[in-house]
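User: My instructor asked us to take a sequence, write out its structure as C-alpha cells, and then describe one feature of it. I'm not sure where to start. Here is the sequence I was given:
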Amino acid sequence: MKAFFNEIFDYNYYCNKKLITECLGLKDVPPRTKVLFSHILNAHHIWNARMLKKSEEYEVWQDHDIKDWADIHYENQRNSFEIVSNADGFDKRIDYENSEGRLFTNTLQGMLFHIVNHSTNHRGQIAVDFRNNGITPIGLDYVHYKR
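Assistant: Let's start with the prediction itself. The C-alpha cells for your sequence are:
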C-alpha cells in the first residue's frame, strides 16, 4: 500500500507542478483557476494537518498568490510522504473535525486517496476554465505521467 500511495502522490505532485509552471508562464491566469488551485493546495494542507494532528494554517477557500503556489505544494507533498512513510496501517481510523465543525472518522487510506481524487477533480475544472478562456489545457492524464 505504501508503494501505491507513494506513486499516486508522486503523480499528483507531477500534475500540480506542471499546472503551476503553466500558470507562471501565462500573462493572465483566469480568476477561477486561481481560486480552484488555491483550494487544491488548501484542501491538501488541511487533510495532512488532520492526519498529523496539527493545526490548520489555511482556510478551505483562502487565496494564495501564484508565486507562493510551488512552496505550499512542496510542503504539502513532503507532509503526505511523511504520513505514508510512517503509516503503521492504512486501515487506521482517524477522528477529525471538518471545516463546519462536524465530527467524522475516516481511514487513513480513505483520507489519502481523497486528497489525490479531490485534486484531480479540480484540475479537470481548471482545464475547462483554461479552454473557456482561450488557453489550451495541458495533458495531465496518468498515462502521460507514466510515459
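For the description part of your assignment, you could build on this observation: The helical segments are 2-24, 31-52, 66-85, 108-132, 142-146. Try explaining in your own words what that tells you about the chain.
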